[in-house]
Design a protein that fits this description.
By secondary structure, the chain is of the alpha+beta class. It has 2 domains: 78 residues, no CATH class; 88 residues, no CATH class. It has 6 helices and 5 strands, in the order ααββαααββαβ. It has a 3-stranded mixed beta sheet with strand order 3-4-5. A two-stranded antiparallel sheet has the order 1-2.
Length: 166
Amino acid sequence: MDFTTLALISFTSLLVYAYYRFVKKSLNVPPCPVRPLPVVGHLLTLKADQRPQFQQWRKECGDIFSIYLGSKLLVVINDFDLIKETFVKRADDFSDRPVMFIDEVSFQFDFKSQALEVSQPLATHPYWERTLTQVMHSTYCLMLNNKTGQSQSIKLGPIIIHQHFS
């Protein structure tokens, strides 16, 4: 087999892989604002401050859309009622989702005071604290249950929410 044939087969295989990885798989997920690039996904379209970009994509795609960070799919939910529906009412369906870096950074559980500390940017929704408290209690109880293997619910103390003003 000569080099040209091998290069053609490799290139065709890469195209088929990219097609099935990004096009066929994306039929079962929320819409993407722009077509993701193979291997890097939407990383090249994101800026240092993603908030304006996400607001623009929310206007284009609605309250739920998906982006690819590299080859990882990330579903973005922009509505508090949908967040509550997803993580409180249907928590069992979404409790086995992979832990992302931001989850590890944003949540700190103090076992001594039984308090969950959440670092959260200032939200503009008038009921964000109550909704966020319900979501975090439910999500963190499920995370603890999954990590410890316990089947009973865990009672948490207060949730301390830190606001960051920019």
